[in-house]
Design goal:
The structure is a homotetramer. Chain A has about 290 residues and is an all-alpha fold. The first copy, chain A, has two domains: about 130 residues, Up-down Bundle (Four Helix Bundle (Hemerythrin (Met), subunit A)); about 100 residues, Helix Hairpins. Chain A has twelve helices and no strands. The interface between A and B is large, with 56 and 50 residues.
Chain lengths: ~290, ~290, ~290, ~290
């Protein structure tokens, strides 16, 4: 809850580094908001370039343009990275933070492709694709708007339900292993007339587990599907189980969200014991009895 | 909420234009209701004609009949459009409103197919299909019945949850791009024995993203599916993520709807005991028996 | 609500017809419960016979046994039908009730297959399959146990949400028609090198609508799937829409169920105005103010 | 609820058997927790061995290593099983309990594969796969952490909704049988030009029911899908039904979970104003300030 607590009165930035910090890392001022919007557009465009470059026909037709755009964005992000390093109070902490690593991964691959030795060993295509991780930088947009508190509420609801979700996932995974093994017994190990093994997609437990996950999550590609009556019966049973199981996590998060939403807490702080989190309809502190 | 507030006492229509307006645009009077029902039936029949016309065998067998029906409905809707223009107080505002544009799109294509030059350039089939947009006019039926307040309640719940839904969709789309890129790395870029590229459905990031959306929404066509062990493992992980992610929006709207539904209490305060939270249909306080 | 109201003191059955009625139509006495259990087992077994008979290999191997079992159950159900007719106070009303028609459909097809003329025209296989409707009789089991009130609560929740569900289905169907038409435009009407039409599964609007329903409900067979980039983009958009739309009905019924569950109503009847449905915590009738 | 009630003051273990019991069967002491963690790791590793052994290529490459690991885990689990038998107060009751049987099934297959006669009749591969049931032992991990109360809450919510779920599953299964039979009528029984039956996947009612379950649970493999217009229309109708039906169980469990979650109020009544419904952590009445 402390994240949502009213911030202490912010002091004015004193020098150019603090000014820069405010613009780049915060979104309270007009310059800060503008910077975030420009950055977001640059990120989305640079990811679009990565995507287009992966399409063979576009790459061969507009290769030069995409190459130029790629270097433009890389240099832009490099300048931004350096400025972030300069204006942040503790640069090393930023470098090893989540966003610090993502910011570095956004620019590194392009430089590496320019080194023939690295590009040869790692594969230009491989390095190029890693740049798609750039999009992770877009998570910063939540900072921009009223979406921060919504994202926070969602995060809290999921966090509050984490133990229930862990229990649920354990049950699902155990069911996947058991049913996957059973299907391997029933459908796997077929041989054709010449005694050679037939590929059924249930030829090992891991492959059967892949099928079990595809089925239980109701994705159902159909690249692997049972062919024997016993296998079909077990598959049908598993689908019904998956159909019933899917409702459990839904209920969990809904109940947590309803709880979070229903707890109409007042923002009052008890003058007697400084306790927070009173119900909106409370007239007295529920911890010490002081009149609110 | 202002939309649901009781309307002020409606004054009687004064002349034929106001009478027509009442019949065509409102659904309070018997004539107005009848008009809406007849219009709805005409819309549904005309959309059925569009559908049947798109089936090759029916078109060749009953082409003349469908052609006649099409022109009958087009002329009917044209008359209706003109009448709407005449009786509405501000015609220009109607023309550029959502329903005004839909009403125009419902009649324009048929006239355009009669102009050889346009039909030749745009394609008769293309113009014919656009007429299916006619069905959008059917949204007016919500006006007819008690469905309006229900539709309004749903719209409000979704609107109230719009920021949460935006956060959710951002997370989903970022996951789609990241996983799509990873699958492109793992499954794409295969070559056969002769060194020619093999079509796997993961040959570019956009194609991989199409697969990622198909998988994450649990649709799972199976037209594209991973074939390598690493790809299958990543796909299985993504399915579990999608299985867990799908619960979040469900919870969001449910919590909002529960909130909207719970609000159906009257705002009256008991003059006897000052208790609140009476049912909207209560005439007496349920705690002390005082008349409300 | 009247169904759940406490029944008036039941008077003892006076003669054999009332005794029979009590056994066959009710489930309060021991004989009545036993009858229902025996009937349920007979229904399930007879449906199993219908199923087994439809499997070619079993039919050719055990045809005689299945034929005998079929006639055994048909005669059993015929006797039951006649007894029901005898002991029910108003036979005609029973004959034309839902269960009366289902009871008749459960025995008629077997007799019809014995008439060569009918069997020849309608098809023995066709008549045999209709017998599966017998299973509808199993709905009577809800009468057996505490499941009646649960089934009633579910029915009420769905009934209470019927207008919201109608709005939801209208929106889904309109989306299906619009997107189906758009896909017909984008993917349909292909011709091969010789100018002959290629079957794509989008060759008419109804076929495209079938695809749209398969996609929107996240079933995703994959027997029809888009092949052009524009079609894939539209399909991806529709999946995201379906992914978001599916949450709405879930929320609707959940909110109604939560409401039904939370409305802890007392079974008290107001001595002043005979009104029912008071809150469990009400001390005074909320309609007339009488002390409860 | 009695399971969650505070346990009576535990007495200190008196001898080595009670000490062993505490370590092996409970997770309150440090030694007990360590034992559980080590056991969990051993279970997961042994299941991984079973999985890897089922992959042909890994089996042929590292067969000896896997064989050794398998016997290592089997002997480890055998020792554990014997120690459990020794230290448990009533050994016979443990042997026939759920975990007792699972513990035995975890070690038996490996010994059986060593007996040539049994291995020859039952199949080594078959016996090897049964060992995957070992994973069921992992359910004991819920004992380890705060997950026990969460798992218990989930179990209670599902248990409370069991009658509603039974009603729901009955409706689904009856719909599956009816629609499956109808599809068998519509799509089945096709013959080709030579009069020989064509395999459509709807050739018997059980096969059609398999399709109906695959469709209704929105899995949608596509290995069986309708080909006639009537079949597609019925399939589309069933999908819409499944799309609407899936929301019902979701709502059921959510409503139950919300109920369970909402119950977290204390049962205390304020001595000052007799108000109820205080939070479990409240020390003072929130309406009048009296000490509770």
């Amino acid at each position: 809850m402390s994240r949502l607590a009213p911030r202490p009165q912010r002091r004015e930035p004193q020098n150019w580094r603090e000014h820069l910090y405010e613009i780049i890392f915060e979104a309270d001022t007009r310059a800060g908001k503008l910077f975030d919007v420009v950055l977001l557009v640059a990120i989305l465009l640079s990811v679009a370039v990565v995507m287009l470059e992966s399409v063979r026909s576009i790459r061969s037709a507009h290769g030069g343009l995409l190459f130029a755009a790629e270097w433009f964005f890389t240099i832009l992000f490099t300048v931004e990275y350096v400025v972030r390093l300069i204006c942040v109070p503790r640069p090393l902490r930023y470098v090893f933070s989540f966003y610090g690593i993502v910011d570095l991964l956004a620019i590194l691959p392009t430089y590496l492709t320019a080194i023939p030795y690295v590009a040869g060993r790692a594969g230009t295509q491989r390095l190029a694709t890693i740049r798609a991780l750039r999009l992770l930088r877009a998570f910063r947009i939540f900072k921009l708007a009223h979406m921060l508190s919504e994202a926070e509420a969602l995060r809290q609801a999921i966090w509050a339900a984490r133990a229930k979700i862990a229990v649920f996932l354990s049950v699902v995974l155990i069911a996947v292993v058991i049913v996957g093994s059973a299907m391997h017994l029933i459908e796997g190990g077929k041989v054709d007339a010449d005694g050679r093994p037939v590929v059924t997609g249930f030829d090992s437990i891991p492959e059967s587990m892949y099928w079990a996950i595809v089925t239980m999550t109701t994705v159902g590609y159909g690249d692997v599907s049972p062919s024997t009556p016993a296998g079909k019966a077990l598959a049908a049973g598993m689908m019904m189980l998956g159909y019933c199981l899917i409702i459990v996590p839904t209920g969990i998060v809904t109940a947590e969200l309803t709880h979070v939403g229903a707890k109409k807490l007042s923002t009052q702080v008890c003058p007697g014991c400084m306790a927070e989190g009173h119900d909106a309809d409370a007239a007295f502190c529920k911890y010490c009895g002081t009149h609110l």
